[in-house]
């Protein structure tokens, strides 16, 4: 693949047209679940495929992220979005040390070539600049998603964000220490 260009997006750049060629497809076969205090990989199969409603909601969320002082990063190949990540600007945790990595997604055809790693790095750098000590991730529980976060150095969150757990009870609550950045 040719060069991927990364940039922080402005509010006016975030619109439905940005996602016209983006393919949020994932075939899931196994997911992690916490049972009796232990993480277990279970046979849970389903397919995720975003449609117009999901993208419309995503656009409003990402615009809100920018409006409230957070950041949205895009990865582009031939001027087409192939990945994005967002960091919120609301601190939480008992020491107010967390900022949330609210999204990181790579278009299906562009996975496995390092785009996610670069976007994760950009999000970490931005969160540290904003004053966070840790990045918090309420992450999809699929085997592949969790393998990515483990490779990045994430671990189970020391403190869970109750609202995020309520919003997505099957997600894995993770954190990443920004002291390495």
UniProtKB/TrEMBL annotation:
Any Pfam family the entry gives: Acetyltransf_1
InterPro entries per record: Acyl_CoA_acyltransferase, GNAT_dom
UniProt-listed Gene3D superfamilies: 3.40.630.30
The N-acetyltransferase domain, residue ranges: 17-181
Domain of life where this protein originates: Bacteria
Coiled coil regions in record: none
SUPFAM superfamilies from the UniProt entry: Acyl-CoA N-acyltransferases (Nat)
Protein name: GNAT family N-acetyltransferase
Organism: Lutispora saccharofermentans
